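Agenda item 2: adenosine-5'-diphosphate complex prediction
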Amino acid sequence: MKRAVYPGSFDPITYGHIDIIKRAAEIFDCVEVSVLNNIGKTPLFSIDERVSIIKEVTKDIPNVTVGSFDGLLVDYCMKNNARTIIRGLRMITDFEYELPLAQTNRKLCENVDTVFLATSLEYAYLSSSTVKEAASFGGDISKFVPPFIADMIYKKYGTGSEERINEQ
Ligand code: ADP
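Presented output:
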């Protein structure tokens, strides 16, 4: 049984993340999407909100589970019987950040390897932070996240079109 962990902030999850999850689920027997409890960042969505959002978007993929963690990622992987960490790569700057992280994790625990999936071209520009920035000014984020997540983001910021606000 090949288990993998796909860790991240997912604040919020975007179509780019969802694409990586679907592709990873085709490669591994089981993929645990795990929300990182990063005390250094002030998130838009709480851990519980992010976990339930991800559960909703992955509910039709039977071999995907959702959890959260803090502490060392490699410890979390070992506890979950996962020998692989999945990370998505959008551009060279992602690689520069991810390579030493992967190498550090391997020094910390040689049983856990990192596998990188190159982003699909249509999502190469997409990041949670730009989605939040656009939404905070009422921009149309329908190409970036599923509709129910867009609504939740607009609600947090009190933005969106008149129509959207009136609907709520
Ligand atoms: P972080 O873990 O750095 O806070 P995120 O939660 O945004 O970042 O992303 C988690 C993982 O998903 C990372 O490996 C990141 O590179 C990847 N990722 C983020 N956005 C995309 C995208 N548009 N396409 C593919 N992978 C992505």
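Discussion summary: The longest strand covers residues 30-36.
Owner for follow-up: CH.
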